[in-house]
Amino acid sequence: MMSKILKNKEFFLPLLLTVVVIVLDQITKALVVAKIPPYGLGFQLFGDFFRIVHVYNTGAAFSLGHDLNPLASFLFLRILPLLIMIVVVVIYFKTKSFSYPQRWFIAGIIGGGFGNLIDRFFNSKGVVDFIDVKFYGIFGMQRWPTFNIADSSIVICGILLIISFIIQERKMKKEVTNEN
Predict the structure, then answer these.
(1) 109 domain-assigned
(2) Residue 88 pLDDT greater than 90, yes or no
(3) Which keywords does this Swiss-Prot/TrEMBL entry list (predicted)?
(4) Would you call 83 exposed, middle or buried from its count of C-beta atoms within 10 A (0-12, 13-18, 19+)?
(5) Catalytic positions, please?
(6) How far is CA 34 from the centre of its chain?
């Protein structure tokens, strides 16, 4: 009985991160919209290295697809990401082999995905982005594309999830080698 309770806790507790990411993402976006005029500068730190701005992204990552026609935009920037998020949630619940940290990472990806989907479905101007960082000409970019909390959660948790899978794979290979 206690084992089942602990398993359920390990299964559902990471989903708190999903809620935290969505709430933080929506609160920060609302603050930016309320305090900074569209395409305006809120403030900057360390010269112009880090800036809080107010922009709308009508595309996907790096504004890809911002010029799609309305039907294609609806399908590729709303419906497809929604279906992908549903698949990720189903995989989260159906896959028993994820480690506890992997569940946290997936929960962060889910939170970020739904945070941006809320904007896509309920903000006709696009996804609110506000974190603007100088990139010093790396890859030909003076500034990294502006992003938000949801984007950060997706990228950070995605990287950590990939690293965890690599570590898990190496451990499994080492165990197989040690058994032989």
Answers:
(1) yes
(2) yes
(3) Aspartyl protease, Cell inner membrane, Cell membrane, Hydrolase, Membrane, Protease, Transmembrane, Transmembrane helix
(4) exposed
(5) 129, 151
(6) 23
